[in-house]
Design goal:
about 300 residues, alpha/beta, 7-stranded mixed beta sheet, 11 helices, binds zinc ion
Length: about 300
């Protein structure tokens, strides 16, 4: 793929809606629906390996280059947050082993949201580990159907993945505890109906840091919020999610896409000995939320004018 094509893919699929609109808009004013071949190339570009790394405390990155998977280790076994695509499960397995841990010690598999690039590997990972799959009720439904009937306008062939059954459903504020680590679920619907943000405390250089594993609040290109939305109630859900995220205590934040939290750049700074850890970034978190809110409000305005 040419670099110009690669840039266009990122413009259409990754950048905030306002940027997409500036670059390419449909006559109705919303970006065009993502097209299969372009979306597939984008997804494929995220599947390359990257060395597994410890990020902070007992939190490790074991994902592919573009799609996060976090391993949270404890003396009583481990928790895996996001399994990437079905095809990237062997890569995650290798990453866990390279760090000196055993995949068989993974006790819980959690998800940020039930799209093919984050929970597509749940079924294979469960076969490998025997771990319990933990999910919100709404994402458990999507997971059970293998993502096939998601409201997203992305091509269905691309959004479907091997179905998996949740063993445990979490509601707002419920927690998963293992070996002295507690991860709390915050339901943050919008990007999917069951998108879930997880929080925990981590010890970093003798300081307790509040960690947020952000789900996603981007509006998938071409999604209508107001005019005949495929997801009725989506506007209220986005508003409530934004308010909830703004109120979360946060020192360190991670996201389902490594690029979104500038992982490589922050790791390079960490290696140079920067203190406190460059992952301590509450200002970056607030900036991300402010940009997301702006995009949301801009799209509402745009749809109101149609
Ligand atoms: Zn998604």
């Amino acid at each position: 793929m040419s670099s110009a094509e690669l840039i266009r893919l990122f413009v259409v699929c990754l950048l905030p809606p306002a940027t997409v609109r500036a670059a390419e808009t449909s006559p109705a004013g919303l970006p065009p629906p993502p097209e299969f071949a372009a979306s597939k190339r984008l997804f494929d570009s995220w599947k390359a390996p990257v060395p597994p790394r410890r990020l902070v405390g007992n939190i490790h990155y074991v994902g592919a280059i573009g799609i996060s998977s976090f391993l949270i280790t404890t003396p009583a076994g481990h928790i895996l947050l996001d399994t990437g695509f079905d095809e990237t499960v062997p890569l995650i397995q290798r990453g866990v082993e390279q760090l000196g841990f055993k995949v068989g010690d993974i006790k819980f598999i959690l998800g940020s949201h039930a799209h093919a690039d984050h929970t597509g590997g749940h079924a294979a990972m469960q076969r490998l580990t025997g771990a319990q799959i933990v999910s919100s009720a709404a994402d458990a439904q999507l997971l059970a159907r293998g993502g096939a009937d998601d409201y997203s306008p992305y091509p269905k062939e691309l959004m479907s993945y091997p179905p998996a059954k949740a063993d445990r459903i979490v509601r707002e504020g419920e927690a998963i505890s293992l070996g002295g680590v507690t991860l709390t679920a915050h339901l943050t619907p919008g990007h999917t109906r069951g998108a879930t943000t997880w929080t925990m405390d981590v010890s970093d250089a003798a300081t307790t840091r509040r960690v947020v594993f952000f789900s996603s609040i981007s509006i998938v290109p071409s999604t209508s919020l107001v005019l005949r939305p495929a997801y009725p109630g989506i506007v209220d859900d986005y508003r409530a999610t934004l308010a909830k995220l703004k109120a979360l205590p946060c020192d360190i934040w991670f996201s389902p896409l490594g690029g979104q939290f500038a992982m490589m750049e922050k790791l390079a700074r960490l290696e140079r000995g920067e203190q406190p850890s460059p992952f301590v970034d509450p200002a970056g978190w607030q900036k991300l939320l402010a940009a997301a809110e702006q995009d949301f409000l801009r799209q509402l305005e745009l749809e109101a004018r149609r």
